[in-house]
Amino acid sequence: MHRTLLIATSLAALVGCSAPSPANEAAVSNVAEPPAVAAPQVAAPTAPPAATTPGELKTFGDWAVGCDNLRNCQAVALAPEDGVGDWPAFLLSIERDAGAEGAIRVTLSGQSEATPPVRIAIDGKQVAEGGPGFAGADAAAIATAIAGGRSAVVRAGRETAINSLGGASAALRYIDAQQGRADTAGALVAKGAGPDRSVAAAAPVIRAIAPAGTAATLTPAVEAELRKIAECGIADFVDDVPRAETHALGGGTTLVLLPCDQGAYNAIAALFVIGADGKPVPAKLDADTGMSPEAQPVPTVVNPDFADGVLSTYAKGRGLGDCGTTQSFVWDGQRLRMTEMAAMSECRGSMDYITVWRAEVTR
Asked: Name one Pfam family in it (predicted).
């Protein structure tokens, strides 16, 4: 059965958590002691800057495709819509870097690890052997054959996989258009006589704060009050609510990952930041985490992990993990800035998420 994950609007339903409604709640005024009754009001989260706009994903038949903000693009084969549980061992993936000299790569994703030599045949004609991945002229030949074919057979080790090429040509045409190659000699499908003068976009640069110092600690009473502010429902799902994690961000600032809600395979955390004044406030982010189409009193993330100054998230569309969203953030002293985002909107066997945003980080 066909299942599509709506990255920006439907993730809350997938994790079994209803979306909170906007509200102004009392802020916590003291980390070490329970909060006072008459506390400052919590301001609504500010909207992300317009510049942080991830690319969108498209589906053409049995292929998904997307590009990032640098115009690097990727098209991925999908399992048949009616083949749940009987998916190909391998699914083809075609990547094309931006710019006139943009490299082409063909790799395999899916349920098995490819053992070379990998043999790829299109409509009964072998077009490549080697691998497990292909680059340069071999990758270009595979992409050209895929665009004009109906079916691909991939053999690696003892595994054989059949990939539908329905929609592959449209997906590669989409890449040509997004990269500005249409009607040029450099296009994959939409070829023309003109020279390829396409250029890559520059990556945004984020100056991050190096993590340092000692993280603040929270009492159980303060955590309970923060859960009220964030409108958390985790107590409805678990008997023993996990304690919050705190991580030093540098400059006397602490990140709080507060367990907030729980689904079958997704754990949701509310984000607070504790400044030098010792007061937890809702964290600010420059990008939507995809949890709800409505405003939230406190931003939330799914399955978070904090290591080496990077907050990583992984929101699964379902337990298998063949659809969902991953994001990474760093702290710039004012807000959490997204450095990378990858997504797969189709729950059809592909474990290869498509990158739709990336930034360069300096410290």
From this structure: DUF1176
CB 11 within 8 A of CB 290: yes
Q: How many CB atoms lie within 10 A of CB 305?
A: 13
Domain annotation for the chain: domains and CATH numbers: 11-51+205-362 (no CATH), 57-178 (2.60.40.1880)
Q: What is the largest CA-CA distance in the chain?
A: 75
Instruction: Judge contact between 137 and 154, C-beta under 8 A.
Output: no
Whole-prediction pTM value? 0.86
- The residue written with tokens 């990032």 in the block is 68
168-178 and 136-147 helices cross at what angle (nearest 10)? 120
pLDDT tens for the chain, residues 1 to 363: 333 333 333 333 333 333 333 333 333 434 444 333 223 334 444 455 546 899 999 999 999 999 999 999 999 999 998 766 678 999 999 999 999 999 999 999 877 888 899 999 999 999 999 989 999 999 999 999 999 999 999 999 889 999 999 999 999 999 999 999 999 999 999 999 999 999 999 999 999 999 999 999 999 999 999 999 999 999 888 889 999 999 999 999 999 999 999 988 999 999 999 999 999 999 999 999 876 656 788 999 999 999 999 999 999 999 888 999 999 999 999 999 999 999 999 999 999 999 999 999 999
